[in-house]
TrEMBL record:
<feature type="binding site">
    <location>
        <position position="16"/>
    </location>
    <ligand>
        <name>Mg(2+)</name>
    </ligand>
</feature>
<dbReference type="InterPro" id="IPR006357">
    <property type="entry name" value="HAD-SF_hydro_IIA"/>
</dbReference>
<dbReference type="Pfam" id="PF13242">
    <property type="entry name" value="Hydrolase_like"/>
</dbReference>
<keyword id="KW-0460">Magnesium</keyword>
<dbReference type="GO" id="GO:0005737">
    <property type="term" value="C:cytoplasm"/>
</dbReference>
<feature type="binding site">
    <location>
        <position position="213"/>
    </location>
    <ligand>
        <name>Mg(2+)</name>
    </ligand>
</feature>
<protein>
    <submittedName>
        <fullName>Sugar-phosphatase</fullName>
    </submittedName>
</protein>
<keyword id="KW-0479">Metal-binding</keyword>
<dbReference type="GO" id="GO:0046872">
    <property type="term" value="F:metal ion binding"/>
</dbReference>
<comment type="similarity">
    <text>Belongs to the HAD-like hydrolase superfamily.</text>
</comment>
<dbReference type="GO" id="GO:0016791">
    <property type="term" value="F:phosphatase activity"/>
</dbReference>
<feature type="binding site">
    <location>
        <position position="14"/>
    </location>
    <ligand>
        <name>Mg(2+)</name>
    </ligand>
</feature>
<feature type="active site" description="Proton donor">
    <location>
        <position position="16"/>
    </location>
</feature>
<dbReference type="InterPro" id="IPR036412">
    <property type="entry name" value="HAD-like_sf"/>
</dbReference>
<dbReference type="Pfam" id="PF13344">
    <property type="entry name" value="Hydrolase_6"/>
</dbReference>
<dbReference type="InterPro" id="IPR023214">
    <property type="entry name" value="HAD_sf"/>
</dbReference>
<feature type="binding site">
    <location>
        <position position="190"/>
    </location>
    <ligand>
        <name>substrate</name>
    </ligand>
</feature>
Length: 270
């Protein structure tokens, strides 16, 4: 019988909550990716996490036993930097909120990262960073009120950890939005379709399947990109939430884990 994955020519994986939690592979993930590689399936990795660069993500995956190259990894940090480079002149100052990875991406596209509103940044780019605090948010608040373009890498309310869901970049974006009484000018990552569309274009795929653990980002993003989706219950969203989901939040399929890729027939969303 035909397995679910045989219907597609590309599988796009979210990372946190799908393949690993922080730095530990989720049971079955290594075997599932090896099986896909053995079958010759094209894969891409698309993450809203802006705290690692593509090469770092690929190295992390390889360290877990999952074959991956930097070219197969798409991050919201890289996408945000590319967008800034399209809009701003070379060397323009950008106030960066987040991890060193985001700062590095901004530097690589020819822009100048700054830390203070006094540097008159043309834009503020906000991504997750575990050390991000009030001082940096205050500088961003001043810069945005002065007219800086505000770009958020993603708006995930939480991120999955071994201790359960903890505040993600979306929670910090919401804090700043509350203070400013406005939303970001642009949100780059999922549920926006850009990461998925870029992955499909890179692989010349005609029929891609998105695998994720969040209804509000992975599944909604797949819907916006016109792609089918598989929700795995190893991360944030639960079976109860999946059963109650409708519209753009309703996954095409639901599975307990990545074993659902190889079931015949696949279990559809309830």
């Amino acid at each position: 019988m035909t397995s679910l994955v045989e219907k597609y020519d590309l599988v796009i994986f979210d990372l946190d909550g799908v393949l690993y939690l922080i730095d530990r592979p989720i049971p079955g993930a290594v075997d599932a990716l090896a099986r896909l590689r053995d079958q010759g399936m094209a894969v891409r990795f698309a993450t809203n996490n802006a705290s690692r660069r593509a090469a770092e993500v690929a190295a992390l995956l390889r360290g877990m036993g999952i074959a991956a190259t930097p070219q197969e990894v798409l991050t919201s940090a890289g996408a945000a930097a590319a967008l800034l480079a399209q809009r701003l002149e070379p060397g323009a100052p950008v106030l960066v909120l987040g991890a060193p990875a985001l700062r590095g991406e901004v530097t690589d596209v020819g822009l100048r990262p700054v830390d203070s509103a006094d540097d008159n940044p043309r834009a503020v780019v906000q991504g997750f960073g575990p050390d991000l605090g009030w001082k940096q948010l205050a500088e961003a608040c001043v810069a945005i009120r002065a007219g800086a373009w505000w770009v958020a890498t993603n708006t995930d309310r939480t991120l999955p950890t071994l201790r359960g869901p903890l505040p993600g970049n979306g929670s910090l974006v919401a804090l700043l939005a509350h203070a400013l009484e406005r939303e970001p000018d642009v949100v780059v990552g999922k549920p926006e379709p850009g990461l998925f569309a870029t992955a499909a274009a890179q692989a010349s795929a005609r029929r891609a399947l998105v695998v994720g653990d969040r209804l509000d980002t992975d599944i909604a993003g797949a819907h916006r990109a016109g792609m089918d989706s598989l929700l795995v219950l190893t991360g944030v969203s639960t079976a109860v939430e999946a059963a109650a989901a409708s519209g753009a939040l309703r996954p095409t399929y639901v599975s307990a884990d990545l074993g659902g890729l190889f079931t015949a027939p696949a279990v559809p969303a309830l």
